[in-house]
Design brief:
alpha/beta, Rossmann fold, seven-stranded mixed sheet, 7 helices, 23% strand, globular
């Protein structure tokens, strides 16, 4: 017989699937607060349909968005006004960056598609002195804290999904439709390996099944 808590969580899962919203976009404004109000160059790795890259353009003179999916890059270009200082390129995240160094590098819900240590090493190598790296990532839940945060996030996720979808008949946002796969690294491993590459990196668990990493190149 299915327990009551299990039935409640299953009902929440069905409700959340029927009322989707962009968990990554939830952190965009937080990302902007992690670096100065103005910078010269910014790079968004795994830029998807370009929502964050266009926000970065309100702070940076020049923004590059890269993604391995040519289809979503084409969509990002269509959604971006011609006067916006943003360029999008379909390419592998670890090779052929458009410039040598950036004042800001962001990567949202994409690093779990890449070799973690190699990706952080490449990002560090392309960050200008004084620059800021900001990641929002996914981890595999393994600890009691992970499961507690997941349980706490489920009803809140449902409430926000209902509010955002109330009276809306529009299709699911493009930025939510990119191909993805589950994360396979547990959070403790992420912290250990990140700090081996990026000393003093600030890594925090977050709601909505995310973690954040901020590192400044001193």
């Amino acid at each position: 017989m299915t327990s009551l808590p299990h039935r409640i969580l299953r009902a929440l899962d069905h409700f959340n699937a029927a009322h989707p919203w962009d968990h990554n976009a939830h952190y965009h404004r937080w990302i902007l607060r992690q670096f100065p109000r103005h910078c010269d160059t910014a790079l968004d790795v795994g830029s998807g349909s370009g929502d964050l890259a266009r926000l970065l353009a309100t702070r940076a003179n020049e923004v590059h968005g890269i993604d391995s999916d040519p289809t979503i890059i084409a969509q990002a270009r269509k959604l971006t006004a011609p006067a916006t200082p943003v360029t999008f390129t379909a390419q592998d995240a670890l090779t052929g960056f458009p410039a040598d160094a950036y004042d800001v590098i962001t990567c949202v819900a994409a690093i779990h598609h890449l070799p973690f240590v190699e990706a952080l090493t490449v990002f560090r190598g392309h960050l200008a002195p004084g620059g800021t790296l900001v990641l929002v990532g996914l981890s595999r839940p393994t600890t009691p804290t992970d499961y507690l945060l997941g349980t706490a996030a489920s009803p809140l996720n449902a409430a926000i999904g209902w509010l955002k979808n109330k009276g809306r008949t529009a299709p699911r946002p493009v930025s939510m439709t990119a191909l993805t796969r589950p994360a396979d690294m547990p959070f403790p491993d992420i912290v250990r390996e990140a700090r081996a590459v990026l000393p003093d990196a600030r890594v925090r668990r977050r709601l909505f099944w995310r973690y954040t990493l901020v590192w400044r190149h001193r």
